[in-house]
Amino acid sequence: MSWYENETYLDERPKCPKCGKAMELDDIDYNFKGNQDEYWICDDKCCMSAFVKVRYGKPLGISYTDEDGNQVKWERL
Ligand SMILES: [Zn+2]
């Protein structure tokens, strides 16, 4: 098991707004416990990414962006 799987604050993986598949955790910018930024990605064809801001141990929302970096969806949690 990778350390990512223990470290995400989401209950379930974000779904790609383009193809509907569960996204993969790509990276975490860890600041301290309860404070981190999570980066999720879809597969290469979609080029969609999702950004999750975690503060005080809670994910605030998910920002989905396309390959050009434009936000296509914002999901409040
Ligand atoms: Zn996708």
Description:
This protein is mainly beta. It has one domain (3-10, 19-76). It has one helix and five strands; from the N terminus they run αβββββ. A five-stranded antiparallel sheet has the order 1-2-3-4-5. A hairpin with a 2-residue loop joins strand 1 (24-32) and strand 2. The longest helix is centred in the first third of the chain and has 5 residues, at 3-7. The termini are far apart. Zinc ion is lined by residues 16, 18-19, 21, 42, 46, 48. Zinc ion binds at residues 16, 18-19, 21, 42, 46, 48.
Q: Uncertain segments of ≥5 residues (pLDDT<50)?
A: 1-5
Radius of gyration: 12 Å
Shape: globular
Summarize the main sheet. 5 strands, antiparallel
Bound molecules: zinc ion
Count of extended strands: 5
Whole-number tally of structural domains: 1
User: What is the terminal separation in angstroms?
Assistant: 26 Å
Strand % is over 45%
What would the average pLDDT be, to the nearest integer? 90
Tell me the strand order in the biggest sheet.
Answer: 1-2-3-4-5
Structural class, by secondary structure, is: mainly beta
Number of H- or I-type helical stretches: 1
The H-and-E topology, N to C, reads as: HEEEEE
* Helical content class: under 10%
Write the layout of secondary structure elements.
Layout: H1 3-7, E1 24-32, E2 35-41, E3 49-55, E4 58-65, E5 71-76
Antiparallel strand pairs: 1-2, 2-3, 3-4, 4-5
The protein binds zinc ion (ZN).
